[in-house]
Amino acid sequence: MPRRVAAVAGLALVAWLAATRGDWGEIADAMRDADPAWLAAAFALNLVSLVIRGAGWTVAARAAVNRPLGALPAGRAFLIGQAVNTVVPGRVGELAKCAVAQRHLDPSGPTFTALLGSVFAHRLMDVLPLTLATAFVLAAGDLPGGLRTSVIVTLAVSAVAIAAAVRFAGARRFAGSDRRVLRLLDGLRQGFLVLRRGGPLGWAALLETVGWGVQVGVVWLGTRGFGLDAGAADAATVVIATNAATLIPLWPGNVGLFQVAVAVALGPAGVPRPTGIAYGLALQGIEAGSALLGGAVSAAVEGLRPGELRDMAAAVPEDGPAPPMA
267 burial class (0-12, 13-18, 19+ CB within 10 angstroms)? Predict the structure, then answer.
């Protein structure tokens, strides 16, 4: 119920902003005037960003399961998960990602829950590129006041979450009588193990940072397509704002809220709100379209149909015994 209330409230807020602040004629004009060549380049580069970030998760997943996991199968699992996240709210794609990767692992140790833990650990690594992007924007200019507050709160909460995750990964055993719960906790703990291994952590964090750096390039290419006078710092601000806007997935893609975040981020660069909303629509289309394309191709290679993906995400498999902690 609270989630539904939050979703309805968010939709009402977005609808109010659109009705009172948006000139749909100007939005349509900005969309028509966009250069498709620049947008196509942004689309292709976003696929590159997804592949690089998928490689980062692969490193984390290998550390979690402590046994061989092919780069290509793991990369396909990542892309499938991103595609599911695009059309289904609640980060259901993370479950699909783990279920697809599990198909390529032998059952000698924890699989699904360890992979799920690695997904959480990988998400925590976003703190590094977000911090670097924030520092870059602040050095080059400034963040809008409201966005600055959101970023500071997000970074503070993330720092606490990382500290808790590192401590959790170092735990040795859990007391209790519920064996299923203990297996779940052990599997999740194994998933966070990458946070305590310098080599894998360094590689995964580096790949994640490079992936988000490429994402800044995607945003910049999109601004070229709309003829906006925006630089790298403005593109980084958009990346920061859209990440904050989609942190809690209230509905698929947080459509509407995403566009408002883009318009607010580009406001200091002198971009009119209708143009910012139009660009936000195009940018979200680029991100969603590339994720769906990558996921569709990956699902075809895996021999999976949409119905099978839904069933896999809905079922949480049992795990085997945890391999020894390193």
Answer: middle
According to the model, what pLDDT value does residue 324 have? 38
Residues of the chain with pLDDT under 70: 1-22, 109-110, 142-147, 172-179, 250-253, 309-326
Could you say which DSSP state residue 163 is in? H
Contact (Cβ atoms closer than 8 angstroms) between residue 282 and residue 27: no
Both structure tokens of 175: 């007391």
Question: Would you say how long the chain is, in residues?
Answer: 326
Number of domains in the chain: 1
Q: Rounded to whole angstroms, how far apart are CA atoms 277 and 159?
A: 32
The answer as to whether 207 is a domain residue is yes
| pLDDT of amino acid 247 | 73
Amino acid at 57: W
* Burial readout 109-137 (b: 16 or more C-beta within 10 A, e: otherwise): bbbbbbbbbbbbbbbbbbbbbbeebbebb
Q: Quick one: CA dihedral 221, 226, 230, 233, positive or negative?
A: negative
Q: Which domain, by its residues, includes 159?
A: 40-224+287-314
pLDDT of residue 320: 46
Decide if 18 is inside a domain. Answer: no
Inside any domain, residue 73: yes
* Per-residue b or e along 277-297, where b marks 16 or more CB atoms closer than 10 Å to that residue's CB: bbbbbbbbebbbebbbbbbee
**Global pTM value:** 0.84
Q: Considering only CA atoms, which of 160, 184, 189 is closest in space to residue 172?
A: 189
Residue 280, in any domain of the structure: no
Cβ-defined contacts of 28-37 (< 8 Å, 24+): 28/278, 30/226, 30/274, 30/275, 30/278, 30/279, 31/278, 31/281, 31/282, 33/226, 33/227, 34/225, 34/226, 34/278, 34/279, 34/282, 35/224, 35/225, 35/226, 35/227, 36/225, 37/225
Q: How far apart are CA 244 and CA 127, in angstroms?
A: 12
Question: What was the pLDDT predicted at 177?
Answer: 47
